[in-house]
Every structure is written in structure tokens, then in C-alpha cells.
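Predict structure. Input: Ribonuclease P/MRP protein subunit POP5, 161 residues.
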Amino acid sequence: PRRYVLCEVVSEDPRCRQCIEDRAVGLAVRDAIGRVHGDYGLGCCSISFTVKYLNAYTGTVLLRCRKDFSRLLCSALPFVRQLEGRNQRYPCALNTLHVGGTIRTCQKFLIQYNRRQLLMLLQNCTNEEERRCVQKSLLSCSLTEEQPQSGDEEDDDDGIE
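Output follows.
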């Protein structure tokens, strides 16, 4: 059984998001786990730990770990203070948004989260042009169920075992 931890990279420096890579995120998380929980915690969390998804544009990160050790992972995430990218270090933090048993539940949560963020943006629009752009983005936020074609369904390791 696995758990998926959905996080966002929070940084003052706008260059941070564009320079991060999944390898750098993985190393920073492992380093934080080692500092907080020592070798035992690092060994436990490393068994099935991986960065499943990284969107540098939005700063969204999806981490996978074993269910038994998801609390160790989550408790170490606040201690990630920087990410390294292109031989530079960028101060940042990882904000945990959701912990789920499948990738699909994390996707559904992310769609609702983005919709709420867009609604907040809509309230803060200063002119009609901005308002139109945000409304268009808001209308495009929907989850459509696609019918899997015979045998084409992709295995994304998202079943709760």
C-alpha cells in the first residue's frame, strides 16, 4: 500500500520554480528526512519513495511513499528549506496540500484546490480584461470521466492495497 503526498513549492524567488527538477526535490526531501528522523527514518522512507510528478510551472509536486511511513515523510516536509537547481540554491518551502491513497484522488483534490484559488483571484480582479481571463480559466477547471478503451487503461500504481 502506498500514499501520495501532494505539495506545492512556495518561494519568494520566481526563478525557483523554473529551475527545479524532480531529482533536486527528491534529494531535498531525503535530506530533510535524514535530519529530522535520522538514518532509521531515512531508511524506512526510502523503500518506496519517489517523486511521481513535478510541474515546475505551477510548483506542484506529487510524492509517493509506503503507507506505513507516510507520517514520517509528512513530518519532515516542513524542514525542506531550499532546492538546488542549475548549480544555485533557492530558498523555498514545501506546503503539503493533500495526502491520498491514489493519484486520482490527488488529481481531483488539485482541481478543486485550483478552482478555489481562481475564485479568490476573480474576487481580486481590477479590470474587465483580468476578470474575463480568470472566468475562462475557471470554466476550464473540470474533471471529465473518460471511458477507458479496451485494454488501454494505464497502470499508475494508484490502487489502495
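Strands lie at 2-10, 50-55, 60-66, 82-85, 88-91, 93-100.
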